[in-house]
Amino acid sequence: MPTFTNPVLAGSYPDPSVCRVGEDFYLVTSSFAYYPGIPVFHSHDLVHWRQLTHVLNRPEHLSLQGFDTSDGIWAPTIRHHNGTFYVVSTIAKQRRGSVTFIATATNPAGPWSDPIPLEAEGIDPSLFFDDDGRCWFTGCRDAVRSAAGAPGELWMRQLDLQSLTLVGPTHVLWHGAMRGAWVEAPHIYKRDGVYYLIAAEGGTEGNHSVTAARADAVTGPYVTDPRNPLLTHRHRGRNEPVQNVGHADLVDTADGETWALTLGVRPINGSHTLGREVFLVPVEWTTNGPVFAPESGCVRLSERLPSIAGPQSSKECAEVTRRVHFGDAPLGLEWNNLRGPADAFIRPAPGGAGLDCRLSPEPLTSKQTPAFIGRRQQHIRFSSRVSISFAAADPSEAAGLAVFQSQARHATLALTVDDSGAAQVVLKAWETEDRCIRVTRVPAAGSDMLLAVEGDETSYAFHFKAHEASEWTHVASIERAFFSTESAGGFVGVYVGLYGTSNGQASENLARIHWFEYGQTPQPTPPNAAAGPLQVTG
Fold first, then answer.
1. Active site residues
2. Statement: the pTM of the whole predicted model exceeds 0.85
3. Nearest alpha-carbon partner for 273 in 413, 412, 383, 409
Protein backbone atom coordinates (compact mmCIF):
# COMPACT_ATOMS: atom_id res chain seq x y z
CA MET A 1 0.00 0.00 0.00
CA PRO A 2 1.44 3.42 -0.93
CA THR A 3 2.30 5.49 2.12
CA PHE A 4 3.44 8.97 3.09
CA THR A 5 5.62 10.16 5.95
CA ASN A 6 4.25 12.19 8.87
CA PRO A 7 4.42 15.00 9.83
CA VAL A 8 3.09 16.58 6.66
CA LEU A 9 4.18 20.00 7.93
CA ALA A 10 7.36 19.86 10.02
CA GLY A 11 8.45 22.42 12.58
CA SER A 12 6.45 24.76 14.79
CA TYR A 13 3.09 24.90 12.97
CA PRO A 14 0.59 24.09 15.74
CA ASP A 15 -3.21 24.14 15.87
CA PRO A 16 -3.88 23.24 12.21
CA SER A 17 -7.18 24.12 10.56
CA VAL A 18 -8.15 23.02 7.07
CA CYS A 19 -10.87 23.51 4.48
CA ARG A 20 -11.49 22.22 0.94
CA VAL A 21 -12.66 24.10 -2.13
CA GLY A 22 -13.16 21.74 -5.06
CA GLU A 23 -9.93 19.78 -5.38
CA ASP A 24 -7.86 22.27 -3.36
CA PHE A 25 -7.11 22.23 0.35
CA TYR A 26 -6.12 25.22 2.45
CA LEU A 27 -4.45 25.15 5.85
CA VAL A 28 -3.66 27.74 8.54
CA THR A 29 -1.79 27.42 11.84
CA SER A 30 -0.92 29.48 14.89
CA SER A 31 1.97 31.94 14.62
CA PHE A 32 2.22 33.35 18.18
CA ALA A 33 4.46 36.45 18.46
CA TYR A 34 6.04 36.01 15.02
CA TYR A 35 5.35 38.38 12.14
CA PRO A 36 3.85 38.04 9.56
CA GLY A 37 1.02 36.17 11.27
CA ILE A 38 -1.09 33.12 10.34
CA PRO A 39 0.63 31.27 7.48
CA VAL A 40 -1.69 30.01 4.71
CA PHE A 41 -0.82 26.79 2.87
CA HIS A 42 -2.24 25.02 -0.21
CA SER A 43 -2.27 21.35 -1.17
CA HIS A 44 -3.82 19.07 -3.77
CA ASP A 45 -3.30 15.82 -1.83
CA LEU A 46 -3.21 16.74 1.91
CA VAL A 47 0.37 15.45 2.03
CA HIS A 48 2.46 18.11 0.30
CA TRP A 49 1.86 21.70 1.35
CA ARG A 50 3.09 24.96 -0.19
CA GLN A 51 2.82 28.27 1.60
CA LEU A 52 0.83 30.94 -0.24
CA THR A 53 0.95 33.95 2.07
CA HIS A 54 0.16 35.15 5.59
CA VAL A 55 -3.23 36.49 6.66
CA LEU A 56 -1.63 39.25 8.77
CA ASN A 57 1.15 40.61 6.58
CA ARG A 58 0.81 44.38 6.70
CA PRO A 59 2.32 46.46 9.53
CA GLU A 60 -1.07 47.85 10.54
CA HIS A 61 -2.39 44.31 10.93
CA LEU A 62 -0.27 43.21 13.83
CA SER A 63 1.74 44.82 16.62
CA LEU A 64 2.68 42.52 19.43
CA GLN A 65 5.09 44.77 21.32
CA GLY A 66 5.52 43.57 24.88
CA PHE A 67 4.20 40.06 24.16
CA ASP A 68 5.88 36.86 25.26
CA THR A 69 6.96 34.68 22.33
CA SER A 70 4.25 32.12 23.14
CA ASP A 71 1.49 34.72 23.29
CA GLY A 72 0.14 36.46 20.19
CA ILE A 73 -1.84 34.66 17.48
CA TRP A 74 -3.49 31.50 18.74
CA ALA A 75 -5.44 28.76 16.99
CA PRO A 76 -6.96 30.19 13.80
CA THR A 77 -9.72 28.45 11.85
CA ILE A 78 -10.15 28.70 8.07
CA ARG A 79 -13.45 28.11 6.29
CA HIS A 80 -14.90 28.82 2.81
CA HIS A 81 -18.45 29.79 1.92
CA ASN A 82 -19.96 31.14 -1.32
CA GLY A 83 -16.67 32.31 -2.78
CA THR A 84 -15.24 33.88 0.38
CA PHE A 85 -12.54 32.55 2.69
CA TYR A 86 -12.90 33.34 6.38
CA VAL A 87 -10.21 33.12 9.06
CA VAL A 88 -11.03 33.66 12.74
CA SER A 89 -8.37 33.78 15.43
CA THR A 90 -7.46 35.26 18.79
CA ILE A 91 -4.67 37.48 20.06
CA ALA A 92 -3.62 36.10 23.44
CA LYS A 93 -1.73 38.05 26.08
CA GLN A 94 -0.38 36.57 29.29
CA ARG A 95 -1.84 33.24 28.17
CA ARG A 96 -5.42 34.52 27.94
CA GLY A 97 -7.57 35.58 25.04
CA SER A 98 -7.43 39.33 24.50
CA VAL A 99 -8.97 40.13 21.09
CA THR A 100 -10.81 37.77 18.74
CA PHE A 101 -11.00 38.82 15.09
CA ILE A 102 -12.11 37.75 11.63
CA ALA A 103 -10.44 38.36 8.25
CA THR A 104 -11.73 37.54 4.76
CA ALA A 105 -10.41 37.05 1.24
CA THR A 106 -11.75 35.93 -2.12
CA ASN A 107 -8.34 34.48 -2.96
CA PRO A 108 -6.53 32.51 -0.23
CA ALA A 109 -3.23 33.86 -1.58
CA GLY A 110 -4.47 37.34 -0.63
CA PRO A 111 -4.93 40.10 -0.20
CA TRP A 112 -6.70 39.45 3.10
CA SER A 113 -8.88 42.10 4.67
CA ASP A 114 -7.92 44.03 7.74
CA PRO A 115 -8.83 42.02 10.83
CA ILE A 116 -12.25 42.93 12.27
CA PRO A 117 -12.65 42.52 16.06
CA LEU A 118 -15.52 40.35 17.26
CA GLU A 119 -17.42 40.54 20.53
CA ALA A 120 -16.12 37.19 21.70
CA GLU A 121 -14.34 36.17 24.86
CA GLY A 122 -11.95 33.26 25.23
CA ILE A 123 -9.81 31.53 22.61
CA ASP A 124 -9.86 28.98 19.77
CA PRO A 125 -12.68 30.43 17.61
CA SER A 126 -14.23 28.44 14.78
CA LEU A 127 -16.98 28.84 12.18
CA PHE A 128 -19.67 26.44 10.98
CA PHE A 129 -21.86 27.09 7.91
CA ASP A 130 -25.13 25.21 8.22
CA ASP A 131 -27.29 23.98 5.34
CA ASP A 132 -29.75 26.84 5.87
CA GLY A 133 -27.02 29.42 5.13
CA ARG A 134 -26.55 30.53 8.72
CA CYS A 135 -23.01 30.84 10.07
CA TRP A 136 -22.27 29.88 13.66
CA PHE A 137 -19.29 31.09 15.67
CA THR A 138 -17.94 28.79 18.37
CA GLY A 139 -15.25 29.36 20.95
CA CYS A 140 -14.07 28.28 24.39
CA ARG A 141 -13.97 30.32 27.57
CA ASP A 142 -13.96 30.00 31.35
CA ALA A 143 -17.09 28.21 32.44
CA VAL A 144 -19.87 30.61 33.44
CA ARG A 145 -21.98 27.91 35.07
CA SER A 146 -19.58 25.10 35.77
CA ALA A 147 -20.83 21.58 35.23
CA ALA A 148 -19.33 19.04 37.62
CA GLY A 149 -16.38 21.33 38.28
CA ALA A 150 -15.49 21.81 34.60
CA PRO A 151 -13.17 24.84 34.27
CA GLY A 152 -14.10 25.65 30.68
CA GLU A 153 -17.01 25.57 28.28
CA LEU A 154 -17.66 25.68 24.54
CA TRP A 155 -20.15 28.32 23.44
CA MET A 156 -21.84 29.55 20.26
CA ARG A 157 -23.39 32.64 18.69
CA GLN A 158 -24.58 33.35 15.17
CA LEU A 159 -22.29 35.37 12.89
CA ASP A 160 -24.01 37.89 10.61
CA LEU A 161 -22.13 37.55 7.32
CA GLN A 162 -23.11 41.00 6.08
CA SER A 163 -21.92 43.01 9.07
CA LEU A 164 -19.42 40.41 10.35
CA THR A 165 -20.75 40.80 13.87
CA LEU A 166 -22.04 38.28 16.37
CA VAL A 167 -25.79 38.44 16.83
CA GLY A 168 -28.45 36.67 18.86
CA PRO A 169 -28.21 34.74 22.11
CA THR A 170 -25.21 32.83 23.41
CA HIS A 171 -25.61 29.06 23.59
CA VAL A 172 -23.42 27.03 25.95
CA LEU A 173 -22.73 23.79 24.10
CA TRP A 174 -20.55 21.51 26.19
CA HIS A 175 -18.21 21.35 29.18
CA GLY A 176 -16.09 18.51 27.84
CA ALA A 177 -15.72 14.82 28.50
CA MET A 178 -12.90 14.85 31.06
CA ARG A 179 -13.71 15.84 34.63
CA GLY A 180 -11.63 18.84 35.70
CA ALA A 181 -10.02 19.30 32.27
CA TRP A 182 -10.13 22.43 30.13
CA VAL A 183 -12.04 21.91 26.87
CA GLU A 184 -10.92 23.88 23.80
CA ALA A 185 -10.48 23.85 20.00
CA PRO A 186 -14.17 23.37 19.06
CA HIS A 187 -15.12 22.50 15.47
CA ILE A 188 -18.62 21.48 14.32
CA TYR A 189 -19.41 19.10 11.45
CA LYS A 190 -22.73 17.82 10.14
CA ARG A 191 -23.16 14.23 8.98
CA ASP A 192 -26.47 12.60 8.02
CA GLY A 193 -28.40 15.28 9.88
CA VAL A 194 -26.37 14.92 13.09
CA TYR A 195 -24.10 17.68 14.44
CA TYR A 196 -20.73 16.54 15.76
CA LEU A 197 -18.68 18.75 18.06
CA ILE A 198 -14.98 17.86 18.02
CA ALA A 199 -12.78 19.39 20.72
CA ALA A 200 -9.42 19.08 22.48
CA GLU A 201 -8.92 18.27 26.15
CA GLY A 202 -6.16 17.43 28.59
CA GLY A 203 -3.86 20.35 27.84
CA THR A 204 -1.43 20.50 24.96
CA GLU A 205 1.17 18.28 26.65
CA GLY A 206 1.18 14.53 27.26
CA ASN A 207 -2.52 14.23 28.15
CA HIS A 208 -3.68 16.03 25.01
CA SER A 209 -6.58 14.34 23.24
CA VAL A 210 -9.43 14.65 20.74
CA THR A 211 -12.91 14.35 22.27
CA ALA A 212 -16.43 14.62 20.85
CA ALA A 213 -20.10 15.20 21.52
CA ARG A 214 -23.17 15.07 19.26
CA ALA A 215 -26.58 16.76 18.94
CA ASP A 216 -29.64 16.80 16.74
CA ALA A 217 -29.70 20.62 16.62
CA VAL A 218 -26.75 22.91 16.02
CA THR A 219 -27.30 24.74 19.31
CA GLY A 220 -27.57 21.51 21.26
CA PRO A 221 -28.02 19.93 23.68
CA TYR A 222 -24.77 18.05 22.98
CA VAL A 223 -24.33 14.58 24.43
CA THR A 224 -20.85 13.34 25.29
CA ASP A 225 -19.58 10.52 23.08
CA PRO A 226 -19.10 7.50 25.39
CA ARG A 227 -16.04 6.43 23.36
CA ASN A 228 -13.98 9.46 24.44
CA PRO A 229 -11.20 10.20 23.95
CA LEU A 230 -11.38 9.45 20.23
CA LEU A 231 -7.68 10.06 19.63
CA THR A 232 -4.85 10.34 22.13
CA HIS A 233 -1.36 9.01 22.79
CA ARG A 234 -1.43 9.56 26.55
CA HIS A 235 -1.56 5.80 27.11
CA ARG A 236 1.06 4.71 24.58
CA GLY A 237 4.21 5.05 26.65
CA ARG A 238 7.37 7.11 26.69
CA ASN A 239 8.89 5.49 23.60
CA GLU A 240 6.01 6.34 21.26
CA PRO A 241 7.59 8.43 18.46
CA VAL A 242 4.63 10.87 18.30
CA GLN A 243 3.23 12.40 21.49
CA ASN A 244 0.88 15.18 22.69
CA VAL A 245 -1.68 14.42 19.94
CA GLY A 246 -4.77 16.62 19.75
CA HIS A 247 -6.42 19.77 18.35
CA ALA A 248 -7.87 18.14 15.22
CA ASP A 249 -9.77 19.57 12.26
CA LEU A 250 -11.57 17.30 9.76
CA VAL A 251 -11.93 17.62 6.00
CA ASP A 252 -13.63 15.49 3.35
CA THR A 253 -11.93 14.76 0.05
CA ALA A 254 -13.72 14.96 -3.28
CA ASP A 255 -13.99 11.16 -3.43
CA GLY A 256 -15.58 10.78 -0.01
CA GLU A 257 -12.71 10.06 2.37
CA THR A 258 -12.36 11.99 5.62
CA TRP A 259 -9.00 12.99 7.06
CA ALA A 260 -7.97 14.82 10.21
CA LEU A 261 -5.10 17.24 10.54
CA THR A 262 -3.88 17.23 14.12
CA LEU A 263 -0.92 18.48 16.06
CA GLY A 264 1.71 16.31 17.71
CA VAL A 265 5.35 16.37 18.73
CA ARG A 266 8.33 14.10 18.11
CA PRO A 267 10.20 13.88 21.43
CA ILE A 268 13.65 12.47 22.06
CA ASN A 269 14.28 11.20 25.57
CA GLY A 270 11.18 12.99 26.76
CA SER A 271 11.73 16.42 25.24
CA HIS A 272 11.09 18.12 21.89
CA THR A 273 12.58 21.20 20.23
CA LEU A 274 10.77 21.38 16.87
CA GLY A 275 7.49 22.45 18.42
CA ARG A 276 4.05 21.05 17.65
CA GLU A 277 3.86 19.80 14.07
CA VAL A 278 1.03 18.88 11.67
CA PHE A 279 0.13 15.19 11.26
CA LEU A 280 -2.39 13.65 8.87
CA VAL A 281 -4.71 10.91 10.17
CA PRO A 282 -7.46 8.92 8.37
CA VAL A 283 -11.00 9.11 9.76
CA GLU A 284 -13.88 6.72 9.18
CA TRP A 285 -17.52 7.59 9.86
CA THR A 286 -19.75 5.08 11.62
CA THR A 287 -23.24 5.25 13.11
CA ASN A 288 -21.53 6.16 16.40
CA GLY A 289 -19.60 9.03 14.84
CA PRO A 290 -16.02 9.48 13.62
CA VAL A 291 -13.34 6.87 14.21
CA PHE A 292 -9.83 8.30 14.08
CA ALA A 293 -7.04 6.14 12.63
CA PRO A 294 -9.30 3.09 12.24
CA GLU A 295 -6.46 0.81 11.10
CA SER A 296 -4.13 1.57 14.01
CA GLY A 297 -5.82 3.75 16.63
CA CYS A 298 -2.84 6.11 16.67
CA VAL A 299 -0.93 8.72 14.68
CA ARG A 300 1.72 6.92 12.65
CA LEU A 301 4.93 8.24 11.13
CA SER A 302 4.16 6.15 8.05
CA GLU A 303 0.51 6.24 7.00
CA ARG A 304 -1.47 5.11 3.96
CA LEU A 305 -1.96 7.70 1.26
CA PRO A 306 -5.27 9.49 0.75
CA SER A 307 -7.06 7.99 -2.24
CA ILE A 308 -6.88 11.35 -4.04
CA ALA A 309 -3.08 11.29 -3.93
CA GLY A 310 -1.20 10.03 -6.95
CA PRO A 311 1.79 7.66 -6.77
CA GLN A 312 4.18 10.62 -6.71
CA SER A 313 2.80 11.66 -3.33
CA SER A 314 4.32 8.56 -1.71
CA LYS A 315 7.82 9.65 -2.61
CA GLU A 316 9.63 11.50 0.11
CA CYS A 317 10.99 14.84 -1.03
CA ALA A 318 14.77 14.83 -1.12
CA GLU A 319 16.00 17.02 1.71
CA VAL A 320 18.77 19.19 0.34
CA THR A 321 20.66 22.06 1.83
CA ARG A 322 19.22 25.34 0.64
CA ARG A 323 21.40 28.42 0.47
CA VAL A 324 19.65 31.78 0.30
CA HIS A 325 21.70 34.49 -1.39
CA PHE A 326 20.11 37.59 0.03
CA GLY A 327 19.45 40.23 -2.58
CA ASP A 328 18.68 37.75 -5.36
CA ALA A 329 14.92 37.80 -4.71
CA PRO A 330 12.41 38.82 -2.05
CA LEU A 331 12.67 36.90 1.18
CA GLY A 332 10.77 33.63 1.19
CA LEU A 333 7.60 33.14 3.19
CA GLU A 334 9.45 30.94 5.66
CA TRP A 335 11.16 33.99 7.20
CA ASN A 336 9.69 35.79 10.23
CA ASN A 337 10.43 38.71 12.50
CA LEU A 338 9.41 39.02 16.14
CA ARG A 339 6.28 40.97 17.17
CA GLY A 340 6.17 43.11 14.04
CA PRO A 341 8.13 44.01 10.91
CA ALA A 342 11.86 44.62 11.39
CA ASP A 343 12.22 46.63 8.17
CA ALA A 344 13.75 49.53 10.08
CA PHE A 345 16.74 47.31 10.85
CA ILE A 346 16.86 44.55 8.23
CA ARG A 347 16.69 45.40 4.53
CA PRO A 348 18.30 44.45 1.20
CA ALA A 349 21.82 45.76 0.74
CA PRO A 350 22.48 48.16 -2.16
CA GLY A 351 23.06 46.49 -5.49
CA GLY A 352 21.75 43.12 -4.33
CA ALA A 353 24.90 42.50 -2.30
CA GLY A 354 23.10 40.73 0.51
CA LEU A 355 21.09 41.75 3.54
CA ASP A 356 22.03 44.65 5.78
CA CYS A 357 21.24 44.34 9.46
CA ARG A 358 21.43 47.65 11.33
CA LEU A 359 22.03 47.05 15.01
CA SER A 360 19.02 47.51 17.25
CA PRO A 361 19.27 48.64 20.86
CA GLU A 362 16.85 45.80 21.63
CA PRO A 363 18.55 42.49 22.51
CA LEU A 364 16.88 39.16 21.87
CA THR A 365 15.88 39.10 25.55
CA SER A 366 13.58 42.05 24.84
CA LYS A 367 9.82 41.78 24.33
CA GLN A 368 9.96 44.45 21.63
CA THR A 369 10.93 43.99 17.96
CA PRO A 370 14.67 43.27 17.77
CA ALA A 371 16.78 43.19 14.63
CA PHE A 372 16.02 39.51 14.04
CA ILE A 373 14.95 37.39 11.12
CA GLY A 374 14.56 33.64 11.41
CA ARG A 375 13.04 30.46 10.09
CA ARG A 376 11.73 27.37 11.86
CA GLN A 377 13.98 24.46 12.65
CA GLN A 378 12.22 21.61 10.84
CA HIS A 379 14.59 18.67 11.28
CA ILE A 380 16.05 17.05 14.36
CA ARG A 381 19.36 16.75 12.53
CA PHE A 382 20.16 19.94 10.70
CA SER A 383 23.00 22.24 9.75
CA SER A 384 22.84 26.00 9.33
CA ARG A 385 25.54 28.43 8.21
CA VAL A 386 25.73 32.13 7.57
CA SER A 387 28.29 34.24 5.74
CA ILE A 388 28.62 37.55 7.58
CA SER A 389 30.79 40.67 7.52
CA PHE A 390 30.72 42.77 10.67
CA ALA A 391 33.21 44.95 12.50
CA ALA A 392 31.97 45.86 15.97
CA ALA A 393 32.93 49.31 17.23
CA ASP A 394 32.27 48.49 20.87
CA PRO A 395 31.85 45.37 23.07
CA SER A 396 28.13 46.16 23.30
CA GLU A 397 27.76 45.52 19.56
CA ALA A 398 27.19 41.98 18.30
CA ALA A 399 25.78 40.35 15.17
CA GLY A 400 25.50 36.78 14.05
CA LEU A 401 23.55 33.55 14.33
CA ALA A 402 20.77 32.79 16.81
CA VAL A 403 19.10 29.59 17.97
CA PHE A 404 15.92 31.05 19.38
CA GLN A 405 13.19 29.39 21.42
CA SER A 406 11.98 32.53 23.22
CA GLN A 407 13.22 35.82 24.59
CA ALA A 408 14.00 33.88 27.77
CA ARG A 409 15.68 30.82 26.21
CA HIS A 410 18.09 31.16 23.30
CA ALA A 411 21.73 31.07 22.29
CA THR A 412 23.75 33.31 19.99
CA LEU A 413 27.03 32.95 18.12
CA ALA A 414 28.15 36.45 17.24
CA LEU A 415 30.98 38.62 16.04
CA THR A 416 32.00 41.34 18.51
CA VAL A 417 35.11 42.84 20.10
CA ASP A 418 36.64 42.77 23.57
CA ASP A 419 37.47 45.83 25.66
CA SER A 420 40.71 46.31 23.75
CA GLY A 421 38.93 46.26 20.38
CA ALA A 422 40.21 42.83 19.36
CA ALA A 423 37.76 40.78 17.26
CA GLN A 424 36.03 37.90 18.98
CA VAL A 425 33.44 35.24 18.31
CA VAL A 426 31.25 34.90 21.40
CA LEU A 427 28.66 32.29 22.26
CA LYS A 428 26.03 33.23 24.85
CA ALA A 429 23.24 31.05 26.22
CA TRP A 430 20.29 32.66 28.01
CA GLU A 431 18.25 30.65 30.51
CA THR A 432 15.92 33.53 31.41
CA GLU A 433 15.44 37.09 30.20
CA ASP A 434 17.92 38.34 32.79
CA ARG A 435 20.20 35.36 33.26
CA CYS A 436 22.94 34.41 30.81
CA ILE A 437 24.27 31.07 32.00
CA ARG A 438 27.10 30.60 29.53
CA VAL A 439 29.63 32.83 27.77
CA THR A 440 32.40 31.38 25.61
CA ARG A 441 34.83 33.74 23.87
CA VAL A 442 37.24 32.81 21.09
CA PRO A 443 39.62 35.26 19.34
CA ALA A 444 38.75 35.84 15.69
CA ALA A 445 41.01 36.89 12.85
CA GLY A 446 39.03 39.51 10.98
CA SER A 447 35.46 40.58 10.41
CA ASP A 448 34.45 38.28 7.52
CA MET A 449 33.28 34.97 8.92
CA LEU A 450 31.25 31.85 8.42
CA LEU A 451 29.21 30.99 11.50
CA ALA A 452 27.60 27.57 11.85
CA VAL A 453 25.32 25.58 14.13
CA GLU A 454 24.49 21.91 13.95
CA GLY A 455 21.70 20.14 15.75
CA ASP A 456 21.19 16.44 16.37
CA GLU A 457 19.61 14.12 18.91
CA THR A 458 21.93 15.27 21.70
CA SER A 459 23.12 18.82 21.21
CA TYR A 460 23.55 22.01 19.22
CA ALA A 461 27.20 22.51 18.23
CA PHE A 462 28.51 25.97 17.28
CA HIS A 463 31.47 26.58 14.95
CA PHE A 464 33.10 29.39 13.00
CA LYS A 465 35.89 30.01 10.52
CA ALA A 466 37.29 32.75 8.37
CA HIS A 467 36.38 32.38 4.69
CA GLU A 468 39.95 31.62 3.71
CA ALA A 469 40.57 29.18 6.58
CA SER A 470 40.66 25.46 5.89
CA GLU A 471 39.35 24.32 9.25
CA TRP A 472 36.41 25.21 11.46
CA THR A 473 36.85 26.12 15.12
CA HIS A 474 34.44 24.54 17.56
CA VAL A 475 33.20 27.11 20.10
CA ALA A 476 30.86 25.11 22.32
CA SER A 477 27.96 22.66 22.36
CA ILE A 478 24.69 23.07 24.22
CA GLU A 479 22.45 20.17 25.19
CA ARG A 480 19.43 19.82 22.90
CA ALA A 481 17.06 19.62 25.86
CA PHE A 482 18.07 23.17 26.89
CA PHE A 483 15.96 24.50 23.98
CA SER A 484 13.06 22.10 24.51
CA THR A 485 9.53 23.06 25.46
CA GLU A 486 9.79 20.77 28.48
CA SER A 487 12.70 22.84 29.80
CA ALA A 488 11.92 26.33 28.48
CA GLY A 489 8.10 26.22 28.63
CA GLY A 490 5.76 27.91 26.18
CA PHE A 491 4.09 26.63 23.05
CA VAL A 492 6.67 27.20 20.31
CA GLY A 493 9.56 25.40 18.68
CA VAL A 494 13.06 26.54 17.82
CA TYR A 495 13.87 29.11 15.15
CA VAL A 496 17.28 29.53 13.54
CA GLY A 497 18.07 33.04 12.40
CA LEU A 498 20.15 36.17 12.21
CA TYR A 499 20.33 39.12 14.55
CA GLY A 500 22.24 42.27 15.41
CA THR A 501 22.15 44.33 18.61
CA SER A 502 23.92 47.19 20.32
CA ASN A 503 22.48 46.10 23.68
CA GLY A 504 20.79 49.34 24.66
CA GLN A 505 23.38 51.66 23.12
CA ALA A 506 22.83 53.99 20.19
CA SER A 507 24.50 52.66 17.05
CA GLU A 508 24.39 53.08 13.29
CA ASN A 509 26.65 50.11 12.66
CA LEU A 510 25.65 47.50 10.08
CA ALA A 511 26.24 43.80 9.63
CA ARG A 512 26.22 42.52 6.04
CA ILE A 513 24.69 39.06 5.61
CA HIS A 514 25.85 37.53 2.31
CA TRP A 515 23.99 34.23 2.46
CA PHE A 516 22.25 31.85 4.84
CA GLU A 517 22.10 28.09 4.56
CA TYR A 518 19.77 25.57 6.18
CA GLY A 519 19.46 21.86 5.52
CA GLN A 520 18.81 18.44 6.96
CA THR A 521 21.88 16.36 7.80
CA PRO A 522 21.55 12.57 7.65
CA GLN A 523 24.37 12.16 10.15
CA PRO A 524 25.40 14.43 13.04
CA THR A 525 28.58 15.64 11.35
CA PRO A 526 29.94 19.19 11.12
CA PRO A 527 28.85 21.26 8.10
CA ASN A 528 31.00 21.07 4.98
CA ALA A 529 33.38 23.86 4.15
CA ALA A 530 32.96 25.49 0.78
CA ALA A 531 36.12 23.79 -0.56
CA GLY A 532 35.52 20.30 0.81
CA PRO A 533 34.94 18.22 3.96
CA LEU A 534 34.84 20.28 7.12
CA GLN A 535 37.44 19.64 9.79
CA VAL A 536 36.89 20.93 13.31
CA THR A 537 39.57 22.06 15.72
CA GLY A 538 39.40 23.46 19.21
1. 15, 184
2. yes
3. 409
